[in-house]
Amino acid sequence: xxxxxxxLLVLLSPAAQAQxxxxxxxxxxxxxxxxxxxxxxxxxxxxxxxxxxxxxVPEIAYESVPNLLKxxxxxxxGEVAGVxxxxxxxxxxxxxxxxxxxxxxxxxxxxxxxFDRDGAFVREIGKNLYAWAYAHTIRIDKNDNIWATDKxxxxxxxxxxxxxxxxxxxxxxxxxxxxxxxxxRNANPPLPHVDGRFRQPTDVAWDPEGNIYISDGYVxxxxxxxxxxxxxxxSWGERGKGPGEFNLVHTIAADAQGNIYAGDRNNRRIQVxxxxxxxxxxxxxxxxxxxxxxxxxxxxxxxxxxxxxxxSFTPGAPWAICITPPPNQVLYSSDSYPGRIYxxxxxxxVLGVLGKSGKQLKQFGWVHEIACPSENELYVAEILNWRVxxxxxxxxQQRAEMAR
Length: 404
Fold this sequence. Notes:
The chain has helices at 2-12, 14-18, 306-309, 395-403; strands spanning 62-64, 79-85, 91-96, 111-115, 121-125, 135-140, 146-150, 155-159, 165-170, 203-206, 212-216, 222-226, 232-236, 249-254, 260-264, 269-273, 279-283, 320-323, 331-334, 341-344, 350-354, 367-374, 377-382, 387-393. With 404 residues, it is mainly β. It is globular and about 65 Å long.
């Protein structure tokens, strides 16, 4: 009897209970253990901030050059889709302007204007060009050739430095064809790819050997590769969220080693490939931002699930990317909300951030393309503000403020 009673007391002791299997222990789920999609928004603890956001990202000090471009009295910019700078410092602006005499919908909106390094107007390039429809981006290669990507005509055009057409990629739909009509972006199932033809292309880049990479982004969700002579090589990508898949590949750049950086905008990431299209890594920009930031236009985006769902109007979604010249290369990327520009190392670390949405100097209205001739000199093309800003970054001021 005594031994039975002793055994019972042992079983009921705290030490014995602590030895019970963990599955029988009651558990309390801590708030920090919840996945982002399970977190509920509160006024005290906004959920828009990514839980794994990189901390301690410095604000980059900078200035914007006022009255940069001097246009002739009878000439105006429309939405500025692209900007590029050549080896002489001349500024090339790709604007959705040049015609106000067509229909309200579907009017041609594509014009290249050149300015010298002081902003004085030099000339218009490609006036009345057959490929013009809807401007998207402009790039200058290492030989000062000018490349325009026209989303509306499905074409990429190479001009020599004198402004004469040297090569064309893709083909505009024939106006005489009854089936000529705008593309449906989200056709399901997607239309099959056709070698050498595009559906709303977005940008162009080159590797050190001169091979050409075109982001065929709005409809086809792929990257096309040509050799330096314009011969078709291959393409890779399809619509999706996995490695090597895209949901609006909107911008593209290459580094000095020939790696290709593709801004996969709706998936809110930059994918990096080797020159053969093999996936290397993914870069996501997850840094803190002001939950009260105002959008440049429209309602504030719903950010309750953006870490999972992505979207073009979400923090860190790459609208434009640019890589500076060697030897010490860095990458710049812009988003539409909260409307910032991010400076990154090529391995994806965010080194600094600048700007916000707005209409004043040093504020941005949808930065659609960035030209970065040096680490501390940027040119940004803005859709909503119809302008180009020249930004002079002040890293020495930033370092001095950090040292205080």
